[in-house]
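dumping this here before i forget
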Amino acid sequence: MKYWVYIFYAFCFFPYVDLIGLGTDTQPNALLLAPILILAMKSKKLNGPILLLWLMFLFGLAISFSSSLSSFDTLKNLFNYLSPGVIAFVGYNILDKQERKIDFRFFVSVVLLYLCVGLVQMYYLPDFLIGIVNGEGRGQLQSGRGVISLCPEPAFYGSMCLFLMIFSLLHYGPAKNKLIVPLLLFQLLVLSRSATAIAILAFSLILFGIWQILRFNIKYSVICLSVLGVSALLFNNYRNNIADTRVGTLTEAFIDDPLLITQFDASVGVRLTGAYAPFMNISHNRFLPQGMGQYQTFLRRVYKEGNYRKLLSRYIIDEKDKLGGSVNMVLFQLGFLGLVFPFAIWWAFKDLIKENKSLLAFLIFMVLLFTQIQMMHAMIGFVIAVALFQTKQKWLQRKVNTRAQASY
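structure:
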């Protein structure tokens, strides 16, 4: 059983490694292994957040019958809706049965493997191991972009660094995070150079800083403001040095006109429009379910009505027929019914976010799920499982402390 458990962990930590030639970026390896582990479990535990994730799948199943997508894309959407509940269920039960954290040496090996592959691609062999992921090195080292490591493109490598950072912040203590977080930041900023992932981290830090100010936490407020100030100064000093990189050009375009950045870069436009899709659904469809396959039709309609002319580029309207993402996709396709997904995540995290490191992990996680991260990405369900496990561990610790105090 231990052998299969670590294979499951590996599938979660390497969600883009293509073992079955499916032709999609995000691989369902962990989801396909999950039934074997479920059958091997003698006892299984459910809780509220996992039940809500299963309810979300039932909602997704209901709208699939009226899908206007191809059979393959409809099936892929169903797997997207199924994955978080299954992975969270299996991951939580494994951790709960073991009653201990995942071996830190194993996790360090995961981070170092991403790092080593990225370094080899950056400085020696750009095509190193690109054959084991879909996309054949899409966008690698083009227009100032970084490398892909074990992911289909630099943006996914950057997002994977964020997922691993979220996991580490939730699962390990300060001493171990002092080792892991700098390694992941180096990969994010130097190797992946993903404008999207860097923007996600920056926006999450801004939200974290605002929250600390609202809580009158002077220490963290000063730290956040100092980091933002130093970052602004560094950017101003190195502005010319990064002018030719993708991050630099996108930053300049954003400074000139934030909305026109979607016209400047198709990839950023797809991600930004997708992230904003739920709010367009609220404004123009009363937050009712849209179903599968209605994204392009909806965008064309609101564009013809004269809305979002800066936000919606011709590429998005003419070429992007499917909505990618996680929370944003659920809220667009299911409407108000999709609120079960972010609520399930909040429920899993609610007892943890009193700690600053868990709060930061939660903010990065939520912002990340509004981008082009498919719900089939195994780290989504696995992060929820880890949050549930950590919540239970804290509850057990409080119970022990209460009994100890009562005995005096």
